[in-house]
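S1.2 Input.
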Amino acid sequence: MSTTDTETENTDQATTEAIEAEQTPEATPEAEQAPEQEPEAETGKEPQNASREAARWRKQLRETETERDNLVGQVEALRRAEVDRLAEGHKIRPEALWASGVELAALLNDAGTVDAKKVAVAVGEADERLGLNLYAPPRAPNQSRYPERPQSRDSFESAFAPQD
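S1.3 Output.
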């Protein structure tokens, strides 16, 4: 091999190494500095974006909490309406049941729905505690039937007939 061939071979080898070095970002100092610059640029923007995102999440949280509170109120109103309906079925005013001190939670079953048996027990306790039927008018047997008319011999004509 001549010196020219050796020099060409060395030049080719150096060129190949330079090309490989450019392709791998770890070998170039510019590639090492580029990632460091990007985080600095991002860190300047990151707190601003993070605070915006946090504000958006806080707003969404507040809206969700408001919606939850509204739904809880609706469910409680529906439960109270069902207890009122059952109380009226037991011939007691719902106001009297609530005045007896009964709590809505005591009238619910494990699933969270109104338990008719617990309402019936609460109505009985309210009746005893408040004395709701204490002054109820007495009922005569067969009160709802039509009374029998007494059979009398007296009629309209006999009322005006001369008496003996």
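S1.4 Remarks. Residues 27-42 have pLDDT under 50 and may be disordered.
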